[in-house]
């Protein structure tokens, strides 16, 4: 293909997007005849018919659909290149759309964003919090923060940000009244606060020096919100298994106490925080600086784990 062919490709894309040669001509400030000539020339270059023409509408052939999808990716690369060049000239800017879980967004991420926005005043952050997996493309998300590296498509990247650890925690008042468990098995006799929606008994798993042990516990309270379980635990409701980014500060202040600290609880949602984003050779500056900021501010020794020695 020659450089001229790329202009023909853009003309073809505009025809498909507008649904007509005249619509493409208006967008590209040229004539309908010129657009028709460009598309015909592209078909000749590719040795393939791209459009099914009728008096009422245009339709893509099988080859035309494949070419159109590839052309869209080329166009996205070109736009990313322009954005990168603009970012290098003017610094990171634009709207950054971030997705995070309700618990992480409410307990930690929200507090990180003001300093990020002060550092990059031309970036406007739109934070969407949900506990479901979002589709980066369909929902126009720049970065999704996840506790497991689930990849929705081949063109996505999961960059590790920080470790996620879990602890058993209870209030001093609860332990004074009900005693402190001395073994994993004793948890079955305590009021346990569990994550979920069914309220049915479930199994907590633990690990210590390569040894694994589990216990089946009843749910004195079940909730699909870690912050809600934290509040119930702090008010003496029972023993909760929580991520340290939710309960770390409470343990550091003494408002909550660790239960069986020699055992490492195995969390149900993974052991690392990832930033998931669409792979792009020309990563927009707003995405790059945001991920770098998270690594800088959280890292391998997160502040929420400050209560742990070593």
Protein described:
- The protein is of the alpha/beta class.
- It folds into three domains: 3-88, Winged helix-like DNA-binding domain superfamily/Winged helix DNA-binding domain (Arc Repressor Mutant, subunit A), CATH 1.10.10.10; 91-163 and 271-305, D-Maltodextrin-Binding Protein, domain 2; 166-265, D-Maltodextrin-Binding Protein, domain 2.
- The protein is built from nine helices and 15 strands.
- α2 packs across α3.
- Keywords: DNA-binding, Transcription, Transcription regulation.
SSE layout and pairing:
Elements (H helix, E strand, L loop, with lengths): L2 H16 L2 H7 L4 H15 L4 E3 L4 E3 L1 H29 L3 E7 L1 H18 L3 E7 L13 E4 L9 E8 L2 E5 L1 H7 L13 E4 L6 E7 L2 E7 L1 E5 L2 H9 L4 E5 H10 L3 E2 L5 E2 L6 E7 L6 H13 L13
Parallel strand pairs: 3-4, 3-5, 8-11, 8-12
Antiparallel strand pairs: 1-2, 5-15, 6-15, 7-12, 7-13, 9-10, 9-14
What tags apply to this protein structure?
five-stranded mixed beta sheet, 3 domains, D-Maltodextrin-Binding Protein, domain 2, elongated, alpha/beta, sequence-specific DNA binding, DNA-binding, WH-like_DNA-bd_sf, Arc Repressor Mutant, subunit A, single chain
Which parts are unreliable, with pLDDT below 50 for 5 consecutive residues or more?
none
Kindly identify the CATH topology of the largest domain.
D-Maltodextrin-Binding Protein, domain 2
Number of domains: 3
Morphology? elongated
Terminal CA distance reads 60 Å
Q: Which CATH first-tier class of the largest domain would you pick?
A: Alpha Beta
Radius of gyration: 27 Å
GO molecular function: DNA-binding transcription factor activity; sequence-specific DNA binding
Keywords: DNA-binding, Transcription, Transcription regulation
Organism: Massilia litorea
Domain HTH lysR-type: 1-61
């Amino acid at each position: 293909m020659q450089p001229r062919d790329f202009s023909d490709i853009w003309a073809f894309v505009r025809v498909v997007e507008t649904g007509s040669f005249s619509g493409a001509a208006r967008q590209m400030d040229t004539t309908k005849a010129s657009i028709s000539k460009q598309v015909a020339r592209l078909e000749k270059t590719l040795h393939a018919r791209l459009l099914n023409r009728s008096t009422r509408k245009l339709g893509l052939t099988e080859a035309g659909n494949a070419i159109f999808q590839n052309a869209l990716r080329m166009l996205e690369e070109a736009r990313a290149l322009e954005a990168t060049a603009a970012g290098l000239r003017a610094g990171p800017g634009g709207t950054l759309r971030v997705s995070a879980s309700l618990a992480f967004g409410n307990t930690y991420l929200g507090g990180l964003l003001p300093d990020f926005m002060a550092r990059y005043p031309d970036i406007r952050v739109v934070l969407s919090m949900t506990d479901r997996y979002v589709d980066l493309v369909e929902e126009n998300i720049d970065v999704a923060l996840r506790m497991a590296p689930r990849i929705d498509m081949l063109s996505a990247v999961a960059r590790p940000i920080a470790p996620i650890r879990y602890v058993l925690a209870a209030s001093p008042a609860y332990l004074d009244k009900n005693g402190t468990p001395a073994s994993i098995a004793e948890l079955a006799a305590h009021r346990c606060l569990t994550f979920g929606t069914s309220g049915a008994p479930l199994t907590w798993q633990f690990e210590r020096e390569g040894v694994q042990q589990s216990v089946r516990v009843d749910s004195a309270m079940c909730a699909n919100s870690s912050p809600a379980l934290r509040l119930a635990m702090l008010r003496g409701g029972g023993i909760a298994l929580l991520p340290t980014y939710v309960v770390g500060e409470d343990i550091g202040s003494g408002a909550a106490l660790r239960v069986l600290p020699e055992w490492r609880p195995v969390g149900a949602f993974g052991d690392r925080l990832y930033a998931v984003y669409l792979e792009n050779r020309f990563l927009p500056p707003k995405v790059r600086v945001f991920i770098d900021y998270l690594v800088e501010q959280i890292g391998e020794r997160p502040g929420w784990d400050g209560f742990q020695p070593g």
